[in-house]
Structure formats: structure tokens, C-alpha cells
Amino acid sequence: MLQMKRLIAVSLGLALLLPLSALASGLEGFLAGVNVQARADLPGFSARLSTQFGVPVTQVHAVIQAVPEPADAFMILQLGQMSGRQPDRVLAVYRPNPGKGWGAVARELGIKPGSAEFHALKSGNLRFTGQPATRADHARGNGKGHGKGNEGGHGRGHSK
């Protein structure tokens, strides 16, 4: 019995240390890994989301409560960062039809198919580190500022 507990503890420890993208392929696999981490330690998950995306923990809690799965909260914050939109704006796009898929939500937020962000999204090449984004993350397309939407001051005018 003690050996079984040790085996489980070691397995869980290794799973948390390995990059999520190495454990599964594609976006669905990545999000499944995020859900495993979140369910193992929801307060820690919330704190890591807050740190990684620069969002207050109270706002992270509100997003987690507004979506069916913890990984959906990650995606709300990730798409907000990629598109330069606030989480409440991303939720407003996601809520009416959560079954339409993250690619459709990304397109509606102004993340263009063919962009580095869109490719990272579709392939599951995202990072959940719990650390603030670095310059390398931004260059890789895992940061803010590459998506084009009406809130960026381009297109239809600044205040329309």
C-alpha cells in the first residue's frame, strides 16, 4: 500500500514537471493536462493563472466560475492575451455558444487564421508555466499584440 502511494506521488510529480505539450498532442490534449493540474490544486492553479496573465486572482476566480472546466478559464485568459482583449470581452464571445470551438472564438476576437497565434492555438503549442510572459513568448506568438481587432485602434476608427 505504501509503495502504491509512493508510485502515485512520483507519477503526479513527474506529470506536473513535464511540459504539458509533451504529454499530449493538440489543443485537446493540452487542455486535458491543464484540467488535471487544476483539479489537483485549484488555489495554486488560480494563482498561476493570475501570475502568468497579469490578472487579479479575484478576476481569475470569476472566470473559473463562469466556465464549465478550469482549462476553459486558461483559454479565456490566453485568448485575451493573444487578442489584447479583457477577459470579460472574451467571455462575452465564448458564452453564447461554447460548443463552437476555440478557433471560432479566436477568429471572432480578431486572431487571424494563418497567424502565429492561431497556429499555436490549433496545434496546442501553448504554455502554462505560471510565470509572466517573456519576450521569447511574444516572439513565438504566445503573447499579446499580434492579433488584429477593432479594439487595437486599426480599421474603423479609434472610437467607433
Describe this structure in words.
The protein is an all-alpha fold and 160 residues long. The protein has one domain (19-139). It is 62% helix and 0% strand. It has helices spanning 2-17, 20-23, 26-40, 42-53, 57-66, 70-83, 87-94, 102-108, 116-123, 135-140. Helix 5 (57-66) crosses helix 6 and helix 6 (70-83) packs across helix 7 (87-94). The longest helix is centred in the N-terminal third of the chain and has 16 residues, at 2-17. It is globular. The chain starts with a helix and ends in a 20-residue tail after the last helix.
Question: Which features does this protein show?
Answer:
160 residues, mainly alpha, disordered C terminus
Helix content: 55-70%
Q: Please identify the oligomeric state.
A: single chain
Note the total helix count. 10
Major beta sheet summary:
none
Number of strands: 0
Overall geometry comes to globular
Number of domains: 1
The low-pLDDT segments are 17-24, 138-160
- What is the CA-based Rg, rounded? 17 Å
The averaged pLDDT comes out at 78
Strand content: under 5%
Structural classification: mainly alpha
Outline:
This protein has helices at residues 2-17, 20-23, 26-40, 42-53, 57-66, 70-83, 87-94, 102-108, 116-123, 135-140. It is an all-alpha fold.
